Amino acid sequence: QLQLVESGGGLVQPGGSLRLSCATSGFTLDYKVIGWFRQAPGKEREGVSCIKSSDGSTYYLDSVKGRFTISRDNAKNTVYLQMNSLKPEDTAVYYCAQAPGVFLSAQAMCVRPSRVGSWGQGTQVTVSS
Question: Across 52-56, 84-88, 101-105, which has the greatest mean pLDDT?
Fold first, then answer.
């Protein structure tokens, strides 16, 4: 059974940092695209960052470029999202997701959430003073 479990969310002040983790089971990261999406109240879910495990290619939402970094540890079947210089507008529930990646690019997965194969349960990130 494919599972994705997020952790690492919480409350942080503007300018602070958090690292989200997505522990996966039931599949290996090989030939998968893994992504982080977020959804704020009243807004659509959007792709924040995605990574194609086979070649390490990545995609970032313009508003997080230079602040967020996605990485993966194939041996641990875990994907991370390091978030620095957090802003109040980053407040949202963050979801980890996966999709078969043989013919799918990181960007293609992130810009169209309908391509996602399975989702985690989400972790809340709140940026507030």
Answer: 84-88
Element (H, E) at 110: helix 106-111
Cβ–Cβ under 8 Å, residues 85 and 65? no
Q: How far apart are CA 93 and CA 127, in angstroms?
A: 11
pLDDT of residue 119: 96
**Token pair for 111:** 């810009």
Pair 52, 99: CB distance under 8 Å = no
41's CB contacts (< 8 A; 6+ apart) are none
The rounded distance, in Å, linking the Cα atoms of 66 and 79 is 18
Q: Which residues of 88-106 are buried (b: 16+ CB within 10 A; e: fewer)?
A: eebbbbbbbbbbebeebeb
